[in-house]
Amino acid sequence: MPATDANGPIRYLALETGGTKLVAGLAGPDGVLLETRVLRRGASDQAADSLARLVDVSRGLLGGARPQAVGFGYGGGVHRARRQPLECFHESGWDAVDPVRTLEEAFQAPVYMENDCKVAALAEAVLGAGQGARTVLYLTLGTGVGGGLVRDGRIVELSDHGEAEIGHLQVEPDGPPCPCGRQGCLEALCSGPGLAGLAREAGLADPTGPALMEAWRNGDSAATRQVERAADGLAAALGAAMTLLAPQAIVIGGGVGAANPDFIRLASERAKHRFSSYFQSFFKVVPAALGEAVVTQGAALLAARGNLVST
Fold first, then answer.
1. Is residue 311 a part of any domain in this protein?
2. For 301, left (φ over 0), alpha (ψ -120 to 50), or beta?
3. Verdict on whether the full-model pTM lies above 0.85
4. For 91-137, what is each residue's pLDDT tens digit?
5. What is the rounded CA–CA span in Å between residue 188 and residue 74?
6. 12 and 91 co-located in one domain
7. Residue 62 and residue 69: Cα distance in Å, rounded?
8. Measured between alpha carbons, how far apart are the two ends of the chain, in Å?
9. By the 8 A CB rule, do 255 and 222 touch?
10. Is the residue at 263 inside a domain?
11. Which structural domain, as residue segments, surrounds residue 223?
12. Could you write out the DSSP letters of every residue in 217-243?
C-alpha cells in the first residue's frame, strides 16, 4: 500500500539540468525513482527555456497532483544561503532567473536546489557504489568534471558556494585552458571536451575522446602520451583527495568514466604513489552504479530527506 497524505500518494519531484539534457522524475516516499522523462537541450537554449521545459514536463508527470517536495540537481554552482544558481559553464542565463521561486510557485511545494555532482554523490552513497562506506567522494567525468562529498548518508556542506570541486583542481599549471578561465584544471584534461583537445594535440584524424582512447588501446604512441598525461592529472587529483579527505570510497561516474574503466584503473594505480602510506589500506576507487539516472536519483533523495546535509 503506497504511503499517502491528505493529497493522495506521496510523490517527490526530481529535476536535473546537465550539459546536454534535462530530466524530470517522480519518486516514492523512500526517495527511490519510479519514473523519469528525458529531454535534450537545444544548442541555443538558455536557462529560461530549460526551466520552462522542466516545469511543463513535470506537470505531465504529476498529472495534476502536487508533489510533497521538489529536488533540483543544477548543473553549476549554488549559493546555498541565497538559494540562487551560480555560473553554469554549459548554459547561459541562470543569473537572470530564480529557479527556486519559479518551481515553488509552479508546484506549491518546498524546493531544495543543489549542485548536480553533490546530489549524485548522495545517490551513490545511499543507493549505489558507495554503500557501506562512511565517507564517499564522488567524481563525475563527463561534459565537465565535478565532485561531491557525503558522510554518513549526508551531503557535506562546508560553504555557501560548495566544496569538493575537484574538476577545478589545477593538476598541470601550464596545461590546456579550462572553461573556468584558468589553465590545467582536471576538467581541462579529463572531461569529454578535454580529452578531445588532447586528441587534437595527438594529431588524430578524428579528434574526439573516444578516438583518443581507442588509439591508446591500439598502441598509438602519440595517443598514449596524451592519455598518460590525462591519467597523471587524475592521479594527482585522487592523491590530493586522499590526503585532504581520506574517503573510504571514491566513486567515479559520468560518461567518460563509465566508458573507460581501463583509464580509471591506470590513474588509480598512479595515484597510489601520491599520498601517505597510512591511507593505502583503505584506498578504494570503484565505478558508479546508478548510470545516467544518478543526478535525478540524488535530487529525489534530496527532496525526500528535506535538504539533508552535514555541516
1. no
2. alpha
3. yes
4. 889 999 999 999 999 999 999 999 999 999 999 999 999 999 999 99
5. 21
6. yes
7. 12
8. 36
9. no
10. yes
11. 129-289
12. HTT-HHHHHHHHHHHHHHHHHHHHHHH
